[in-house]
Amino acid sequence: MVMFSREMKIGLDSPIKMAAYAFFAAVLYGANLELYDIAYDTGDWWSGFSLKWGIIFIVFIIVSLLYLLALGIALWRSANVDSLLKAVVDLRGKLGCARWLLSAGIVMIPVWLLQYSSWGVILDKTNLRLLVWSLIVLLLAFFITTDEIRAWAGSGILTAFFISATVFSFFAPLRNVTSFPFSLGWS
Description:
- The protein is mainly α.
- Helices cover 68% and strands 2% of the residues.
- The chain has helices at 13-39, 51-75, 79-95, 98-115, 119-122, 126-144, 154-171, and strands at residues 2-3, 9-10.
């Protein structure tokens, strides 16, 4: 770690944090643009938005900004954030075996949402799906990390990537299974 002054420390993890923050900012920006394309021209409530889609779009922008703010605070945290994360990690430890059930639910909800519901047709853009996947990976990594000090560990994040990709890949072809004797595209 290189020290420039007592207050300012620059380590090797700073470029990694900047890259992670830039990646999530780019994904959120792309997801906002994609949701705008979906929501625009659905009605005449507000500048081409229907009431439902206008509210969804506004809430999505607000949540995106709050997510970027929380991510920035978490990456460059202070003592107050460390105490909050410690409390959250202690709560995770108290869940016991229930955290594994929560992990299974966290992985299965986006599979159902994106592959078996009508929302999968609406949310078919790359950045929106990447956003959902990244949030699932972060939540799953939080619950499967066994470290009693840190909220996320590198091994937990890699395991969450592997588990979520495996589950998505396993269930993707199952949506084409039918009880009809011919395939869905036979004619």
